[in-house]
């Protein structure tokens, strides 16, 4: 059989060249831009600044604030997501098969768009007519300032994001739970372990790869959060929900500082990468 | 089995919490204007009213935005099926130099945060030579800003789709290719006539995944869909919200309309979707 080498390229080249165009070239270009000052509204191209943007990032209180807000958001969302997703997965694993039709329902929030979810929750959080404050009122509690109080707004976004992610992660956990052989757990029970001990010392360690996956994808998505605060709170009140994603958008498209915005996005990418790596190494050492 | 009953109730409770917000906006969208802001509030509408849907569909640009989103999503689905799937197939089944290194590069592409590429990609899209009034150096016009192709651009080949296709094709027997090749089929014929017909679950998953990616996209659509003509539904909804005192009735109706295509796709092919998710998670 004659192997024609070129016969492969019509399959591979279009896809790869396209990724060069949408991923590689923009990444390199962003790196270059991060060392420049560039306002597309002005005449002339990017001007070389060296490390000035990065120096600005490290001293700019706005950037530090946005990083803190984003980190708080991520570190609230991810653990809550894991707890609820795992609880739902364990329930689904033990529930009767007739309920498996409900699985589609748990997916719905994660396939609805961020904008749709934001609008749904904006309506739920509506101060007087929203479902939540009506329910609070019905049981005699005062209205909650869900999105209008700077001390609450971020937590309200956390609740929404957890609601959105639980079903998705639960199905991932469920798939992993179903691969754990019953006799492994049975062996533990024979040795006198309680249900909790079986979970804690057998099931949970066996789920480690899934938990790494959930944490890493959670870090990537929460640290890039943009649409929800942009739509629901515009980053407010008092900048309390200005995530790095919102800040980058403002720098680039409102202040016309594409160079600075590129530097911020590189900083964000580095933070995400470092946290993901740290999580991976920590689990590996513990295992 | 008392504990089984408790477990079932737990699952149902989770389902209620998951679905209640959807039910609430669905109900609200059918309430007559007088009942949306009624005091004391009604949970159920006293009569079903289509007034908000009629308003959203006849007195706003929602139908145009819907069409824009649909056009972009179809372009994205076509691009992924015709370009990304064959690339994934080649990574799984065809021998070529640097195959593993190039695949690692694709994986690295999946890791690049969206936000790092959005700004340069915007500048590149604006300055594509000879498009949208640009001269050969890419200056003077708007490139592909405000076009459907511009909106589809970052999603036409998704790295994740290449990854998913490679996983799928590497689980199919390679003997199929060898046998067809011995019978004199070209590589193209092997792919289209042998592998594609047995890959319908993969193609269904990719159709849903890439449709959702395009349909749900917000940031890129916000900065590239400049002007009314190419505004997508997601951006339209957010603009709707910020224009003056939010007119909640039609906004809720539009939110429901924006969710319908996703729900339909999803219900039609739930199994394929979950299979795709599982492939993504066990890497």
Automatic annotation (TrEMBL), chain A:
InterPro entries: ABC_transporter_permease, MetI-like, MetI-like_sf. It is a multi-pass membrane protein. It is found in: Cell membrane. One of its GO terms (cellular component) is plasma membrane. Residues 67-279 form the ABC transmembrane type-1 domain. Its main location: membrane. Keywords: Cell membrane, Membrane, Transmembrane, Transmembrane helix, Transport. GO terms for biological process: transmembrane transport. The chain crosses the membrane at residues 7-32, 66-92, 104-124, 152-177, 198-220, 260-281. Belongs to the binding-protein-dependent transport system permease family. PANTHER family: ABC TRANSPORTER PERMEASE PROTEIN, INNER MEMBRANE ABC TRANSPORTER PERMEASE PROTEIN YCJO. This is Multiple sugar ABC transporter, membrane-spanning permease protein MsmF. It comes from Deinococcus marmoris.
UniProtKB/TrEMBL annotation, chain B:
It is found in: Cell membrane. The keyword Chaperone does not apply. It comes from the Bacteria. It is a multi-pass membrane protein. Keywords: Cell membrane, Membrane, Transmembrane, Transmembrane helix, Transport. PROSITE patterns: ABC_TM1 (PS50928). It holds the Pfam family BPD_transp_1. The chain crosses the membrane at residues 62-90, 102-124, 144-169, 190-215, 248-268. SUPFAM superfamilies: MetI-like. Gene3D superfamilies: MetI-like. GO terms for biological process: transmembrane transport. Residues 66-269 form the ABC transmembrane type-1 domain. GO terms for cellular component: plasma membrane. The keyword ATP-binding does not apply. Belongs to the binding-protein-dependent transport system permease family. This is N-Acetyl-D-glucosamine ABC transport system, permease protein 2. It comes from Deinococcus marmoris.
């Amino acid at each position: 059989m004659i192997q024609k080498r070129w016969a492969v390229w019509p399959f591979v080249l279009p896809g790869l060249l396209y990724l060069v165009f949408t991923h590689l070239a923009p990444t390199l270009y962003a790196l270059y831009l991060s060392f420049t000052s560039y306002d597309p509204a002005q005449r002339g191209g990017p001007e070389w600044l060296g490390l000035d943007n990065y120096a600005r990032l490290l001293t700019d209180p706005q950037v530090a604030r946005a990083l803190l807000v984003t980190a708080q958001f991520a570190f609230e969302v991810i653990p809550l997501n894991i707890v609820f997703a795992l609880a739902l997965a364990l329930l689904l694993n033990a529930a009767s098969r007739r309920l498996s039709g409900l699985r589609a329902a748990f997916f719905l929030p994660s396939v609805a768009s961020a904008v749709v979810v934001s609008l749904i929750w904006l309506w739920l959080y509506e101060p007087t007519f929203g479902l939540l404050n009506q329910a609070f009122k019905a049981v005699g509690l005062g209205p909650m300032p869900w999105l209008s109080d700077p001390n609450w707004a971020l937590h309200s976004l956390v609740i929404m994001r957890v609601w959105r992610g639980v079903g998705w992660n639960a199905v991932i956990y469920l798939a992993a739970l179903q691969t754990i052989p019953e006799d492994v757990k049975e062996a533990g029970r024979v040795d006198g372990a309680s249900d909790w001990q079986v979970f804690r010392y057998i099931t949970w360690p066996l789920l480690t790869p899934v938990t790494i996956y959930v944490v890493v994808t959670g870090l990537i998505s929460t640290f890039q959060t943009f649409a929800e605060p942009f739509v629901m709170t515009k980053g407010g009140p008092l900048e309390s929900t200005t995530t790095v994603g919102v800040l980058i958008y403002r720098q680039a498209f409102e202040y016309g500082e594409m160079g600075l915005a590129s530097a911020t996005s590189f900083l964000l990418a580095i933070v995400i990468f470092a946290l993901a790596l740290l999580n991976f190494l920590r689990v590996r050492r513990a295992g | 089995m008392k504990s089984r009953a408790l477990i079932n109730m737990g699952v149902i409770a989770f389902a209620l919490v998951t679905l209640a917000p959807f039910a609430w906006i669905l109900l609200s969208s059918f309430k007559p204007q007088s009942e949306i802001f009624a005091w004391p509030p009604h949970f159920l509408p006293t009569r079903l009213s289509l007034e908000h849907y009629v308003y959203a569909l006849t007195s706003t640009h929602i139908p145009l935005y819907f069409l824009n989103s649909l056009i972009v999503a179809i372009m994205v689905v076509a691009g992924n099926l015709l370009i990304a799937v064959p690339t994934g197939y080649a990574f799984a089944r065809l021998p070529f130099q640097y195959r593993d290194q190039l695949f690692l590069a694709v994986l690295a592409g999946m890791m690049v945060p969206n936000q790092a590429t959005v700004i340069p990609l915007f500048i590149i899209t604006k300055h594509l030579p000879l498009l949208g009034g640009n001269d050969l150096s890419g200056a003077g016009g708007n490139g592909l800003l405000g076009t459907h192709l511009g909106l589809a651009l970052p999603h036409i080949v998704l790295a994740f789709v290449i990854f998913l296709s490679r996983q799928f094709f590497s689980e199919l027997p390679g003997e199929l290719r060898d046998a067809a090749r011995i019978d004199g089929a070209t590589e193209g014929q092997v792919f289209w006539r042998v592998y594609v017909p047995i890959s319908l679950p993969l193609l269904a998953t990719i159709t849903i995944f890439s449709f959702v990616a395009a349909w749900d996209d917000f940031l890129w659509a916000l900065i590239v869909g400049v002007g009314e003509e190419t505004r997508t539904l997601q951006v339209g909804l957010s603009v709707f919200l910020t224009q003056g005192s939010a007119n909640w009735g039609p906004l809720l109706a539009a939110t429901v309309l924006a969710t319908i295509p996703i729900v339909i796709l999803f219900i039609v092919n739930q199994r394929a979707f979950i299979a795709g998710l599982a492939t993504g998670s066990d890497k």
